[in-house]
């Protein structure tokens, strides 16, 4: 399944700092972390994940894989065409509704 790039928050980090660090580590890009999309809590078999997603602006670099097997850049209308991790589905819905509101 597909996920947004990111990872776990380390002690002393804000969620925004953690995301910025993870994007340097995983994709070799520097971003400005913007508005929160949504926070969701999802119970997988292995445990409970609290997932917060943010809008970001790419400031520096091209996404380059260091740990993952694939990366995709998608237009908002293409988001539903991928199979997302279950915890991500509310974020996909929120992004689509945010963009519908902007273009209405
Ligand atoms: N990064 C990310 N993780 C997600 C998403 N959706 C989702 O359910 N998860 C889950 C998968 C993992 O159980 C957890 C995040 O773990 P991770 O493996 O990305 O974290 P990390 O980079 O800090 O990895 P590690 O150091 O623990 O190996 O959240 C998502 O969109 N992005």
TrEMBL record:
User: Needs which cofactor?
Assistant: Mg(2+)
Entry's SUPFAM superfamilies? Nudix (SSF55811)
Going by the UniProt record, its keywords in alphabetical order are: DNA damage, DNA repair, DNA replication, Hydrolase, Magnesium, Metal-binding, Mutator protein
Domain Nudix hydrolase residues, every copy: 1-96
Kindly state which reaction or reactions the protein catalyses: 8-oxo-dGTP + H2O = 8-oxo-dGMP + diphosphate + H(+)
User: Which molecular-function annotations from GO does this UniProt entry contain?
Assistant: 8-oxo-7,8-dihydrodeoxyguanosine triphosphate pyrophosphatase activity; 8-oxo-7,8-dihydroguanosine triphosphate pyrophosphatase activity; 8-oxo-dGDP phosphatase activity; 8-oxo-GDP phosphatase activity; metal ion binding
EC numbers:
3.6.1.55
Database matches in InterPro entries: MutT-like, Nudix_hydrolase, NUDIX_hydrolase-like_dom_sf, NUDIX_hydrolase_dom
Family statement drawn from the similarity comment of this UniProt entry: Belongs to the Nudix hydrolase family.
Return the protein name: 8-oxo-dGTP diphosphatase
State the taxonomy lineage: Bacteria, Bacillati, Actinomycetota, Actinomycetes, Micrococcales
